[in-house]
Design brief:
By secondary structure, the chain is mainly α. Helix content is 67%, strand content 0%.
Length: 94
Amino acid sequence: MKSLFALLLAAAFLLPGLAEAKGCIKGAVVGGVAGHVAGHHAVAGAVAGCVVGHEMAKKKDKEEKAKQQAAAAQANAQPATGQPAPAVPTAPAR
């Protein structure tokens, strides 16, 4: 029991503000349930789930930001008039 308390105390100091981070609550719930089922380690599972959930949310945000930047770059490459770019004339077929 003392080691569990020490683990929780260490996690509280090493992961400041993580409880309010995106993905933490959802990850903690899933990790807590999985830890409980896997051998009555619900608290340790919740801590690990919080960390994993936060990292997954951070990765998802990063991917969405990259997609938005790519879409903005593509929109800037098109003409501002809203008309398609004129076709390049080609040589007549023989």
